[in-house]
Fold each of these.
Amino acid sequence: MIKQLTRSLCALTVAASLSPCWAATDPSKIHDSLVVMDTHLDTPALLVQPGFDIMHAHTYSDDFSQVDVPRMDEGGLDGGFWVIYTPQGPVDEEGFEAARDTALLRAMAIHKMVASHPDTFALAKEPEDAKNIAAQGKKIVYISMENAYPLGEDLSLLDTFYKMGLRMIGPVHFKNNQFGDSSTDPEGPKYDGLSPLGEKLVKRANELGIVLDGSHAHDALVEDMIALSKTPIILSHSGTKAIYDHPRNVDDSLLKKLVESGGVIHVNAYGSYLTELPSDPERSKAYGVLFKQMGDIANMTAEEVAALKAKRKQIDLEHPAVRATFEDYMEHFLHILEVAGPKHTGVGADWDGGGGVERMMDVAALPLITERLLAEGYSKDDLADIWGNNALRLLQQAQDYADSLDQ
């Protein structure tokens, strides 16, 4: 009750344009003092793109990218989970093989980034690595997998990716697959949660010490993972249905189950999951044509990639995007904090995967979150949990369980 009153007084103070109650403490100094991590960085998709240099300062308006070292420095982002993503394809051997190859290339691109810039990046495998790496002034590189589809039906591949550094995995993406049900498959659920193979995936991930990720999963699959997993699960980039009723978001009932099990939800900044945005058929049509022309961007020349981006800029000029706002994002964030609390909430904005809102279109703007949460009355300790400690706790619990099996 006292904390709620404090937050209310802070909010009223800010609304009245008076000196905020945290004025005695510089928000930027607090932000810089924390280990700041994001649990869903889709940037490896750009690492395989000809002409993209992670060390170079880019801008979203120039090439649509959202993460690079100069902007990480500006936004105080120490790193996080760099995603191996593969789109959902046919659930058959040919699809599995193609996805496996794509996933291996993404994993190799992450390792190449670290190996090429050893003074800037360091691969993290253990829970304690994050703070040690940040203390050295380097960027934290944990590896996660969005969509377990590339594993096919051979779970020994999970061991292979674990050896490459994989420490988080989400069973599904936009559509159902061999592991279970997606929240957004137009045909609806197939298994009413996890498939039998999905249950084996949960068991093997637990045995290895890999955190399970319920983002993109159908609510029934999330509930299955909460029930079956021996360690708490994460929602690495999700929102709340209480603010916007979208299948990708979770309702308060499921959120409370997640919290009771020890899990953590990291708040997504994907605009169409935050609020109802006006449709633009002409923009959608133009992008549809562009995507058909695109092919495999990794096999393009730098000049072809530049030409593709020029076409995208032209579409945006002729059919401007209507974006969700920073306030839309914070409405989700603050509601989740009220329900879940700061020990079960974090940031997973979906950078380079569609995330970004007005005023926060790349990682350079991340201090806005810290500033706003301090204004709402959350403490430095709360911010330390939100920005890093909660995800690291889940990693530690996953590792502890795996270690216990070896005794």
Amino acid sequence: MQLESIKQVYLVGIGGIGMSALARYFHKRGCLVSGYDRTPTELTTELQAEGIHISFTDSIESIPPVFSLAADSLLVIYTPAIPKDSPILNYFRSAGFSVKKRSEVLGIISGGMFTIAVAGTHGKTTTSTLIAHILKHTQYDCTAFLGGISSNYNTNILLGNNGVVVVEADEYDRSFLTLHPDIAVVTSMDADHLDIYGNADSVVESFTMFAGQLKNGGSLICRKGLPMENGLSYSAREKADVYAENIRVENGCFKFDFRSGSIAITGVTMQLPGLHNIENAVAAIQTSLLLSIPADKVKAAVEEFKGVKRRFEFIVKKKEVVYIDDYAHHPEELRACISAAKTLYPEKRLTLLFQPHLYSRTRDFADGFAEVLDEVDELVLLDIYPARELPIAGVSSAIIYDKINHADKRQCRKEEVLGLVAALRPELLITAGAGDIDTLVEPLKELLSNA
């Protein structure tokens, strides 16, 4: 299907962060856009305010009539998270409409563009958003499809006037294999999505295939230690082809010096904390230098980067209490989040409120979750958020809880959280998870702001 022929777009699962970016993209192109999602959220409310029709009933009757007729110019996009028995999805399939995954549509959009694709089990959202920010801030420009809401631009879609696109390359369901980048960045390859891949070796194999899809003359940038060949390595922990050194904390911000061959950028300030974010910045800076953007402009852009919502996002920042919200839902993401918080606030007692995401991930990484959650001073563990999955016999958040050694731990239901936090009076609170734990952010903000 050619991009120019698309006049109407229906998205099954429109409320997802990647799907909503596509909805906004086509809406801004002048297409008639509509979609379905299971429940209303802040994001679906924003889409409706922008003029996009959304239904919350998975039935054929909820599809606006105009989307039942225009077969030639109608594109139907779906997310793999939608159940296979979805009446809406199966209607469009059986009726012969053009039905494509979100990743396939990104492949169509980026096909004729200079594509910068960022992949990784962790770090891809922050890194791709930072690259897009640098390109916008320096007026190099780009279009960008982001896996989170940029705090600088308050959106997950940026539109540009040149032929450059930045995309977050999602490994779930091997989606990133629809992309053929000019520059590929690989931030990490930890075992995840084992419900799809089966084992860690298959994850590595898929990432290797992604890196192999570089266009002729393209550039690969990968974190040092990953099993990748023929790419530039980067690190903030050791010497590599591209690296950060002289890392320090000054006035509550991380600073570092960047090195790439004969290029040195000294005293780079990063508003986001943690070694992992310095590594993300190193990859983003190197990507920008490959585009011949002057180093001083890149440095200035990095210093203005405010991050991504729900990625170590400060919600309350007072002397008495600091509250941070984070999307971390894998043991290594939690480890990075906890480490960054402890580095910034070594004197504060850390209370972590964690909601496990997916039964399969909880089962596969119970030991890893328990190990990292042992590092906090106080733990509050919620029930598993199932997302797309049905329950698995014998799997609950208790299998993590029972493996945690320290005594200051609690299990509770979501509706009990506010009362418990009020009683605990935390000094440093982190809420973490990829489920609906974000619905607690505003109530907790109000509670702690008035404490």
Amino acid sequence: MKKVFPILLGGCLLTAGQSSGQAKISADSLVRYYSRLAKGDEADKALLTDKMYALTKSKKETDWLTAARFFYQLKKNNVSDSIQQVAAKQFPTGVVARNNAVEVIYNENDPVKKEALYKAWLKKFPPDKRSKDMIVYDYAANSIGTAYADADNLPKALEYANSIMSPFWKGQGWAGTAARILKHGHTAEAKVLLKKAVEDAYEFKTTRKNEEGAMFAATGYPGYLSSYAQLLFNDKEYDSALVYLKRAEQAETPVRPQVNEMYAKVLIAKGDYQQAFVRLSEVAAQGQLNAGSRGLLAETYAKVRGDNQLEKYIDSLKGGLDDKMKAEFAKQIIKVPAPGFTLKDVDGNTVSLSDYKGKTVVLDFWATWCGPCKASFPAMKKAMEKYKNDPNVKFLFVHTWEKEENAAASAKKFITGNGYPFQVLMDLKDPATGINKVVDSYKVQGIPTKFVIDGKGDIRFRFTGFSGGDDAAVAEVSAMVTLANQ
């Protein structure tokens, strides 16, 4: 399991050759100054480039890391990578060397050997508990615990799960270990870990919300609640499961599909088919049915109504969904020229955005390592099917931010293996800069991100993420295509 570390910043110099008579500027002020230059005009960027090269003459690793960071912001990724490579040699006990050395631990699969490597790494790079990058050590320790969990060594797995030092990461460590030991049937121990994760995340949402990393720690709260409720359900503790499902329901809007599905399962187990039917009908009306909740709706429908008109009933529930989506997205319409591009698809064919002038293009940025991207694909397939007879609507799926050498082959294997009729274009890293040019030109910060481009070449909509419901996702795409064409 490979872990990529962020560049960590400490103090830095204005220039490596600063005279002793000059007033010293705080590290925070310098970073703000460099950031302004990075966002400035070409002259500012040229000045920043000179200052960053000057920092590489420093005898402080923090200056080298600052240089690497800002070369990355200047979209000179290869220069940034080269600086970090040299820094590892220049500072053999420094941050970059430490982060490179830990990769050996991640690449080892045997838990005993992994632990021995970990202890040797700790000896060479002892942690400073006053440092803000203790998370690096937590990642490494978690890697050992994960290996022991997979090998069904429960005592060791629990030891490492409880050894995490960064307060904001404890919940994630407990929940991750719980998921792995569950595969070996350790339900009681997993319940303990998940309950700790739930209460820890709740504290960060409430009494500890001002602590460092609180927002990150709190994000896991709905998921931990859902996972814990699942274990309570499995143990037939239905009333307790409902308590935690209600908390999950109150924790976020919209409610995640698995919470609605689990809620219905608990109600069905308690024999309350009517309430389960009402809840699942509400889910259907929002377009949030997935394969699991659709099956549960069919079960409750048969109990409550007893006819064979389920699909007609579902269609009646979501009858106003398209109009609702149009009203919602009409407020979000934009008009920005879409950056042009030319890419190869997974079969080696050359495709340009200009090939589809006059057509509405749905552009979907994704990657094989991106779970939400892949989760959205069944819905995107349905959206494509809706427009299969419309020659003026085109779907293009751009694979980007690749993490492996054979990215095109991997993307093609995934698409064909799952029967998706998608045309996949490969936005590979530019050899000169190390940048994925197309995703960068569209200023994408996270994937999946989709764009709807009208026939005149203007971006009319941009949306990130996946709602979790196939019908809602299809209605979203349909609304945006319709509005883009008006």
